[in-house]
Amino acid sequence: MKKNKKNFQILVIFLLLLPYQIFSEENIEPKGEEQNRKRLHIYSTPYTLNRYKYSSFRKRTEDFDLNVLLGITNKFFVGFTYNIGEKSDSNYSFAHKSYIDYRQIGEFSNSRYGEYFMFRTQYFFYDNFYGSLNAGVEKGFTKEEKYFIYIGRNIEYQPFSKITTFSNRFFGTMGIGYRKEFFENFIMGIEFEYGIINSGKIKDHYTFDPVYFNGFPLKYIQDLYFGNQYKMGNSEFSVISFYAGIAL
Predict the structure, then answer these.
(1) What is the pLDDT of residues 135-144, one digit of tens each?
(2) What is the rounded radius of gyration, in angstroms, for the C-alpha atoms of the chain?
(3) Quick one: how far is CA 106 from the chain centroid?
(4) Residue 40: is its pLDDT beyond 80?
(5) Three-state secondary structure of the chain
(6) Left (φ > 0), alpha (ψ -120 to 50) or beta: where does 19 sit?
(7) Residue 102: CB partners within 8 Å, gap ≥ 6?
(8) CA-CA-CA-CA torsion sign (23, 24, 29, 31)
(9) Is pLDDT at 232 greater than 80 in this prediction?
(10) What distance in Å separates the CA atoms of residue 138 and residue 50, rounded to the nearest whole number?
(11) What integer pLDDT is reported at residue 29 of this predicted model?
(12) Dihedral, CA atoms, 49, 52, 53, 58, nearest 10 degrees?
């Protein structure tokens, strides 16, 4: 009788502990899986929202960049971002008139611009939320302007050109983001970054025929008087990026 009672007590205790054990395992295992991140994250940013302090023509193009990050630890990742920028282009458009009686057309061309490289660090401080500190450099480029004038039905080409050289620009950002792995090898995330980019150096080089213009071209005199329209100070900016990629 005593033996049966003892066995019954053991059975009751086992039945009471079993749900607790199952509940504990369910809590621990998902948490462990969530923390076990893949070591290599590769993703691209198909869509961004950005805002600059100055309405500058020279803005970083965050869309369609390549990001590669390697997990040094389960929480700390380092890597880089590369953006190819905008391809070189050339077009004709109406320029500001230098002479009242003539209609002036300008040929404007750019070398590749907006290309940049950024070194990234990310630390997952809670679950899939991370903070980031980043530093990068944007490659310089050139702009060229050539002008010619319509005079009646004839076209008179002006022996004048202006080449503006933009130096490399350095920038840094800090941000906060959320990135999660899906189906083992897919990742999606969103990140907000705030940064500062310096103005860089801008130089103008003019080529013209002083005999044709009987001295200095009016365009050259206007630039000396009003200054270069592209010269600006350092700019603050913010970026919200949505990205997706793979984890290996």
Answers:
(1) 999 999 999 9
(2) 31
(3) 31
(4) yes
(5) CHHHHHHHHHHHHHHHHHHHHHHHHHHHHHHHHHHCCCCEEEEEEEEEEEEECCCCCCCCCCCCCEEEEEECCCCEEEEEEEECCECCEEEEEECCCCCCCCEEEEEEEECCECCEEEEEEEEEEECCEEEEEEEEEECCEEEEEEEEEEECCEEEEEEEEEEEEECCEEEEEEEEEEEEEECCCEEEEEEEEEEEECCCCEEEEEEECHHHHCCCCHHHHHHHHHCCCCCCCCEEEEEEEEEEEEEC
(6) alpha
(7) 149, 150, 151
(8) positive
(9) no
(10) 16
(11) 40
(12) -170
Q: Which two tokens stand for residue 82?
A: 């590369």
Task: Output the six-digit token pair for 72.
Answer: 């040094």
In the prediction, which pLDDT does 64 show? Answer: 75
Looking up tokens 């960049």, which residue turns up? 65
Distance CA 200, CA 140 (A): 9
Report d(CA 116, CA 15) in Å as an integer.
63
- Tell me the C-alpha distance between 229 and 240, whole Å: 28
Q: What distance lies between CA 123 and its chain's CA centroid? A: 19
Which residue bears the tokens 């230098």? 98
* Cα–Cα nearest to 44, from 13, 69, 74, 73: 69
Q: Which two structure tokens, joined as six digits, stand for 128? A: 């899939």
Confidence at residue 95, expressed as pLDDT on a 0 to 100 scale: 65
88 touches 109 (CB < 8 A): yes
